[in-house]
Each structure stands twice: as C-alpha cells, then as structure tokens.
C-alpha cells in the first residue's frame, strides 16, 4: 500500500488518533530518583552544576522521599557523602555510615518505597578512585582486593534494610562477589542492579560535584568502558547476568542508546538506563537560557530511552516530570 492509498498523516490528525498510535509510553512507575545524602540536620545544599538537585541531610531526605512516593515514583537510588574519607573507603561499609543510617531512616519512616543503594567506594576513598590502590607501583586499582570491600558495603546496606543494591565500581567479578556475600548472610531476596556497561564518560562531571567523588589524580579509564565499544558492552552484560545480576544497566543513556537497543535484543533480562548528571545539566542550562521547552524535551528524552529498550530509567528529572507524564 502506497501513496495516495496510504497516507500516514491520516492517523496524526488529532490527539485521540495519535494516542491510539502511540507505541511507547513513560510513566512515573518506570522512574528511579537519585538522592545525595550527607551528615547534619536541616541541610539542603544546592549542587551548583545540577540546578534543582541538593545534598540533603537525613531529615530533609525523608521529606523528599515522601514527596517522590506521592508522585508515583516507586524507587530511589541513594548516594552518600561521608564526613571522612580514607584510603580503603571504610565509611562505605561502616554499619553507622551515612548511607546505612539513611537507609534505616527511610525504611522506618516511608512505607513501601523501594530503596536502592549505589555500591562503590569513590565517594568514600581519599583518592576518589572506585577501589583500593595496589600497594606497590603505579596508582592502579586493585580489582580483587576491592571486591571484598564492595561485598562488605553491599552487605552492610542489606543489613540496614536496603531493598536492592547497585554495584557501580566496574570491578571484574563484583556481581558474583556481592551475590555470594548476600546469600551467605541470608539476604538471598535482595536483588542486584548491575551497572554492567558503564562507560568512562565526560557526562559524569556534575555528579562528581554532587557526590564530591572526583578522582584526586588520574581518571577511571582503566576500569570504566571505552565509549567507542559496543561488542565489549555485550560481553560485560553477559558476564553480569551469569554472575547473578537481576537487572542490567547501561550508563550514560543518551550517547549509548544503541547499546541499550543491542543489549535488549540480545538478552532476555530487565534493562535499566542511567540518564546521568551531565545529560540532566545540559537540559537545565539550555532551558535556563530559554533555548528549549524543558518539560517537552525531558519527556522526549525519557521516551527515547524507553523506546531504545530500557524498562527502568534512573533520572534526576524524575520528580519534576512525574506529574506531567502520560500526556498527549
Ligand atoms: C560511582 C557512580 C558514578 C555515577 C553513579 N555512580 C560516578 C562515576 O563513575 O564517576 C555517575 C552518575 C551521574 O553522572 O549521574 N559511584
């Protein structure tokens, strides 16, 4: 059937027809809202490079999490900013660390929200690297020594009541190490959302301000993926699924929509995409300059990520956009 028998415009004439034709929808139930928690009381410190995002003390975090839940957002992702850092990132797995106490508080005070914790050392190490460094020689992150610490961190989160853990350090074998530690201590019901294809990306810049986690020296290219690679991403995803990941993630989202699509076609696993800080801040900057219609662009971005194949989208836009989804 071709023109003039078939006229694609026929089905675009009004909102009802467009709605009936719509292949992809995003609703608040697809979104995860990230939060940054720090010590103190009454703290609500703006993150300069991420307008609308704050570092919150636990009391203020509780208020925001309740608000997120009221907006229909099912889950939050927690990042912690500790008061002290050391070489082994010990606050990442301290029972009374900031993340552990925040999890306890949210689980006690906000019923029914799913609390996911980021499992990494970079916010907690004095080096700002995602693991511990090898004792001798160059500043290389020691993969296997780090595994043990990541497993301890994940276990401490589960013990505090976390509903799900999300390892983001890009250490080989991290999912396996965490699954084993959780199962050993009878946390077999706690799922793992693995940052499987996490790229060494310039789009994390604003996050490193928000989480105060920029590496003191060097970069993360020896463990995060090269942005040029897609076949390698499929190998990473396959490994994580084999090691026990319940959800696999691609991060960032926008420059990596092809990875989401290829992964979705190759693997029968739930996929998450992380719409990262730099992606958020670019939209905010353009909107502030009056160059784009922010709400419309955000909905278009989230629809694109979902259309590429993501089931779950982690996004700093979650709360501001939740009330405006499902529209025509
Ligand atoms: C590591 C981690 C990072 C992000 C999430 N988990 C930062 C990094 O690898 O530098 C980035 C998220 C974002 O940019 O929004 N703990």
Explain this structure.
This protein is α/β, with parallel strands linked by helices. The chain has eleven helices and ten strands. Strands 1, 2, 3, 4, 5, 6, 7, 8, 9 and 10 form a ten-stranded mixed β-sheet that branches. β8, α8 (257-266) and β9 form a beta-alpha-beta unit. α3 (98-109) runs parallel beside α4 (143-160). The radius of gyration is 20 Å and the shape is globular. The chain binds ligand PBG. Ligand PBG binds at residues 118, 120, 122, 168, 204, 207-208, 276-277.
Compact summary:
This protein is an alpha/beta fold and 328 residues long.
Write the layout of secondary structure elements.
Layout: H1 15-21, E1 31-38, E2 44-46, E3 54-56, H2 58-70, E4 75-81, H3 98-109, E5 114-119, H4 143-160, E6 164-167, H5 174-184, E7 193-198, H6 205-210, H7 231-243, E8 247-251, H8 257-266, E9 271-275, H9 277-288, H10 294-308, E10 312-315, H11 318-322
Helix pairs in contact: 2-3, 3-4, 4-5
The structure holds ligand PBG.
